């Protein structure tokens, strides 16, 4: 018995030696209590749920009810000071001078070679105060870029908790929670509302292509905000969800994810894996009329010389087997790209995918495309060659996403 105890202890010590410590978000106590699957993954160093109870039903909670998703691990930076606007304009692709206080816009930023470092949302909280939200950590780069600007940059990922409330009844939940005035928020608006002894900032934004909101609160008030929403949403079908369900919704919306649908410049090991904005569907962001910004010369030069090598497209694939990570061929023979995300869409009733293709395929050559799918059939993989055609994104477009005031579902 003593020998067995010692062996068990040794194994535990060895396991602890290689374990990676994962932080817990301010909402973790509520998520852990709801978790029936014990299905967790690591998001930016935090413990986050892939699924809490049933990934299929969690998806339908987004599309037919109200879904609550913890976005606290999303990296958040406070940018503040007299030169905050000029600093953000120098960093990002879009013209920040056009972003008014109380508004949000989706943007991206590049290195000096015009390769995308990350994409994210920029919140203009006031004339000289912004919040930048993204997937990757960029504090050293932001601090270096701030030299010469009268601006303060601080990471606030740990101190600001975030929730995404998405779905047709999300507005009804907020109204029932007593957040008066939220009905006036248009898409990409933000406003501050009282909560307990502090405030909660609510933006009409999200990653599902549905009616939805994102809420940011001091981490010390996180649990009280969660409880307030869950109580108010009891009769509106509110359910907590994990990332698997959210990912399905974002694919339907045609949204891209850094280091999934494209490799960021700082993560790329191979030189041919980096992407310019035009190569991942973000060329519309580039504002060539504003002053100089990171990567401007390289991006415009690539356009002038026709040096853009890739294009990100939406695909509709025949059949109902998702083409995730499938190779894309032209005429069934020439390899021309790779699928980065794919699902059978329950809402669109289509087999859809997002793929990165080598130009001119997907750009000027869009006919006779095929995907190579390997499907498991009774303990054996079967190769399926399925036709694919380039289609516009989003795959699913819901009128309720932009209706103002929102519908009372």
Automatic annotation (TrEMBL):
InterPro entries: GcvT/YgfZ/DmdA, GcvT/YgfZ_C, GcvT_C, GCVT_N, TrmE/GcvT-like. The keyword Transferase applies. One of its GO terms (cellular component) is cytosol. Residues 56-290 form the GCVT N-terminal domain. Keywords: Transferase. Substrate binds at residue 214. It comes from the Bacteria. Residues 312-397 form the Aminomethyltransferase C-terminal domain. One of its GO terms (molecular function) is transferase activity. This is Aminomethyl transferase family protein.
């Amino acid at each position: 018995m003593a020998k067995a105890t010692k062996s068990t202890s040794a194994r535990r010590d060895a396991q602890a030696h290689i374990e990676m410590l994962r932080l817990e978000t301010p909402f973790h106590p509520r998520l852990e209590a709801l978790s029936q699957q014990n299905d967790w993954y690591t998001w930016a160093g935090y413990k986050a749920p892939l699924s809490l109870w049933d990934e299929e039903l969690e998806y339908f909670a987004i599309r037919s009810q109200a879904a609550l998703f913890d976005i606290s691990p999303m990296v958040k930076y406070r940018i503040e000071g007299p030169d905050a606007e000029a600093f953000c304009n120098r960093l990002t692709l879009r013209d920040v001078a056009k972003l008014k206080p109380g508004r949000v816009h989706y943007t991206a930023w590049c290195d000096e070679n015009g390769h995308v470092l990350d994409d994210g949302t920029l919140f203009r909280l006031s004339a000289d105060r912004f919040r930048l939200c993204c997937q990757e950590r960029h504090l050293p780069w932001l601090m270096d870029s701030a030299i010469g600007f009268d601006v303060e940059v601080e990471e606030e990922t740990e101190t600001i908790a975030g929730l995404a409330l998405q779905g047709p009844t999300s507005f009804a939940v907020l109204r029932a929670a007593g957040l008066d005035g939220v009905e006036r928020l248009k898409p990409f608006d933000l406003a501050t509302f009282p909560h307990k002894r502090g405030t909660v900032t609510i933006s009409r934004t999200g990653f599902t292509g549905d009616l939805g909101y994102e809420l940011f609160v001091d981490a010390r008030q996180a649990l009280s905000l969660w409880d307030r929403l869950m109580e108010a949403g009891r009769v509106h079908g509110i359910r907590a969800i994990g990332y698997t369900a959210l990912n399905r919704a974002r694919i339907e919306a045609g949204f891209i994810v850094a280091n999934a649908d494209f490799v960021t410049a700082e993560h790329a090991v191979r030189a041919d894996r980096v992407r310019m904005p035009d190569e991942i569907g973000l060329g519309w962001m580039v504002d060539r009329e504003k002053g100089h910004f990171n990567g401007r010369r390289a991006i415009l030069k690539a356009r002038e010389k026709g040096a853009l090598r890739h294009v990100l497209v939406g695909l509709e694939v025949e059949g109902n087997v998702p083409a995730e990570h499938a190779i894309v061929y032209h005429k069934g023979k020439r390899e021309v790209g790779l699928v980065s995300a794919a699902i059978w869409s329950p809402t669109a009733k289509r087999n859809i995918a997002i793929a990165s293709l080598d130009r001119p395929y997907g750009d000027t050559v869009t006919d006779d495309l095929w995907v190579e799918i390997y499907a498991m059939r009774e303990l054996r993989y079967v190769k399926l060659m399925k036709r694919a055609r380039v289609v516009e994104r989003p795959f699913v477009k819901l009128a309720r996403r932009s209706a103002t005031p929102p519908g009372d579902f």
